Every structure is written in C-alpha cells, then in structure tokens.
Amino acid sequence: MSDGHGSTPDTPPGWASNQPPPYGNAPGSPWTAPGSAPGATAPQQPQPPYGPPGPPYQPGPYQQGPYGPPPHGHHTPPAMRPGIIPLRPLGLGDILDGAIKLIRSNPGAVLGLSAIAAALGAIPVAIGQALLLGQAGAAFDDPSVLENQEVGFLSQYGGTLISYAVQFIAVTLLTGVLTRILGRAVFGGKMTVGEAWKLTRGRVPTLFGLVIVGMVLLLLPLALVIAIITGLGAAGADLATLFLVGALVVLGFVAYSLFITTRLALAASVAVLERRGVAESLRRSWRLVSGGFWRTLGILLLTQIIAGVVALALSFPFTLAGTFVGMFGAGSTGSLIGAAVLIAVGGTVSAMITYPFQAGVNGLLYADRRMRAEAFDLVLQTAAIEQQRQGWVHASADDLWDPSVTPAGAGRGAPWHSS
C-alpha cells in the first residue's frame, strides 16, 4: 500500500515510484533488489527499441583538440589561402608546393627573368666546353693539339670563371626580384617585371653586401684548411697522418659551412621584404633560424637535391647532343657553334626552373619562421580578410612584411599593422 508519498513497499522512503531505488546487497543495507532474495528469479531487463547499444563514441586523433574532444561532427576549418600558401605555419609540402605555385602564378615575370639570368650564366660555360670538346675531337686526328696547354686551360676554366662572375651579379639580382614577387603572391597578387624591379633596385647594394659577406665567411676558413693541409705536406707528414688530419679538417669545414649558410639563409628575404641593411639582415636571419635550425637545414638540403636532379634531367639531353656534335665535328666552326648552342640551351632551361624554385623555398622558409616565431600568420590573415572585403590586393600589402610599419604607414586603406 502506498504511504501517500509515491513510495511502494519495495521502494525506500523518499524515492518516487517511477525511479529505480538504490538497490544492492551492500553490507548493512536494508534494501535488496527484487529477485535477489534466496530462490527468487532475476527479472528480465527490457531491451532498447533499436537494438543493443553500440560502443561509446571515441573521437579520432585528428579531432582531439587542446581542451578535450570536440563535439560530434566538428571539423577544424582549413586555413585561409588567398595566394600560393595557406596562411598558417607551413609544412614541407606547403613550402615545396608554394615554390612551384610561385612559378605558375606569374610565369611571364618569373620565368622571363630566370631565363635571362640563366642564359647569362650558361653561355660562357657553354663556349668553354664547346672549345674543349672540339680539341678532344681534333686530337683523334692530330694528338699534337693537346700540347697547347694554354688554350686547354683557357677553354676549360676561363668560361667557368666568367660564368661565376656573371652568375654572381645575375643571380643576386634575380633573388631580390623574385623575393619581391613572392611577397605579393602570398596574398594572391601579381607583379610585373617593371614594378618588381622598381621595388627591388634600392635593395641591390644590400644584396651584394650580403653575398660578399657570405663569401668571406666561407673563403677564410677554406684558406685555413688549404694552409693546414699544405703545411702538413711540406713538413713531411706521412700519408696516413696527412689523410686523417685532412679528412677531419675538411669535415669540420663542411659542418661550419652548413651551419653558416643555414643561419644566414633568410638574410636576402629580410633585406628585400623588411628593407634592412646588411648587418641587420644577417642578425635578423640568425634570430629567425634559432629554434628551427635542423628543420631549416633539412629543407635547404632537400631543395638542393631536388634542384640538382631536375637540372640534370632537363640539361642532360642537350648536353649529350652537344657532346656528340663537338667531339665528332672534327673541330670545325659549325660543330663548335652547334655544341655551344646545345649546351647553352640545356643550361638555360635547367637553371630557369631551378633558380626560382630555390628562391621560392628560401622566401617561404622566411615566411614560415616568422609565422612560427612571431605569430605572423595572424597578421597575414587579418590583411587577407581586408583584401577579400575590398576585392583586390593593394600594393600596400608589400609594406606588411616590414615590422616597423605603423598603421599610418601601411598604405592607403590598409587597416593592419605588424606587431
């Protein structure tokens, strides 16, 4: 009988009849579950109307957030990508893909400038190699041709030395111009060759200064290595000692050169995009690479390997054809010209692809290090949102890369600034 409070004889006082009481056989408990008395039959549990329950929901690792699993069906929205890269810290695939998209997004300016720089560097080498191949072909008929060592030295090394001098100028200028184009391409904007050169020409002295400082930092230790090995040889050291010391010194120089080039790899991007001087660009690159040295070194080495393989694959057919023409042309003027043209075309085609690819990787490494070390991706996203609202990429986006730019100096209609 009910006591007037909704309880039954099988329900403890204070519990509603439609709620399960705290049954159990705990020691000292006056209540026992129905059917748990001796000789009683356990009641059948009702089955759910849609079958037995499945396993509890377990979020996948890609859904786990920093504050616990997100609600069912929640997915992190992709990062903004107005241009060649997503505006977030970049992975290896993002950097390599962005470097390729740099070429595809503005092929006229990028490939045109790269072709000019590549041709200027390839032509002297091609002429020297063609002369050397012509001499090798003529030596089959007249071995006395090889006795002229002066001509052989000039044909073998003269073109290479001239090519290095030309590349020193052309590649330095190309790196600056391509970095400026990349700074606009991150937002999806394009830039003509004239506009890129106008924005870069003021940074040319700084770029040459960076290259000269880098060469000095590498050549001085190299001269020390040569002096040590030469001194050991002059002192009459035995071959085993000379080999061991020489190997250790060379390995030390390789480690030093990798360390220096990695630490200073971002200096050109800093000089162009942030408009800093030589010393400030070197210090800035050194600081940005801190905390990501090994990752930066690995990406740079991988880029060199990829560029080398691509260059070899593109230039090999032309070089092979030029070799046959030069060697089997019996030293004739036509064969020399044909060999030089073929070798120059191969070098130009390979370099016009690899130059912008390497410059793009360096520029995107700079952007990635700023996003990781300075949360620069938030600044880029704010600017990209405003540009999407306006419907176009204003030239003032170039000023965004300069941390010293104030809101008033960020350009017309530009509401952003860097911190």
UniProtKB/TrEMBL annotation:
A Pfam family this chain is assigned to: DUF7847
Pro residues compositional bias, start-end: 45-59
Highest taxon above the source species: Bacteria
Transmembrane segment boundaries: 110-132, 161-183, 204-230, 242-273, 293-316
Compositionally biased tracts (Low complexity): 26-44
Claim: Membrane is one of the keywords in the record: yes
The species this protein was found in: Streptosporangium brasiliense
Domain DUF7847 residues, every copy: 93-350
InterPro entries: DUF7847
Region named Disordered: 1-82
Protein name, UniProt field: DUF7847 domain-containing protein
Keyword DNA-binding recorded: no
